[in-house]
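1st attempt posting a full record on here, be nice pls
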Amino acid sequence: MGSKKAITKNQQLVLNTYTKMMRATNAITMRMHAHLADHRLTLSQFGVLEALYHLGPLCQRDIGYKILKTSGNITLVIDNLEKRNLVKRTKDENDRRYMTVKLTKKGKKLICKIFPHHARTAEQVFSSITSEEMDMLGKMFTVLGKAGN
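the predicted structure (as tokens):
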């Protein structure tokens, strides 16, 4: 039997906090995106549609950055959305090396249909904390996200 290395109280606190954060993240993600299966969308596909809906046409690199996906992964996600005629790729007018992605009429109709439900679900998921707590939580996650950079 190997010996356990002792960890400090602070390390234990950090690990427990991380575990709680990940469990909450997983539970929230499941509740927030359960409705996507009804529309045959993955979380990444929804992320692309939502980004294009709010920001307008974007190049694939910018979409990947916005939804936290690698260039290879975002290409596959957009390929699948394009097969369903939800998005369309076009060569960028200013730099033909870039592909601009935009919603099709069908894609816009779909995101306009499902986004209000998504927003209501988000409101319900976060209803157990106050606006002030949400603001504080957002600030803490921003600090954590920038730590070590």
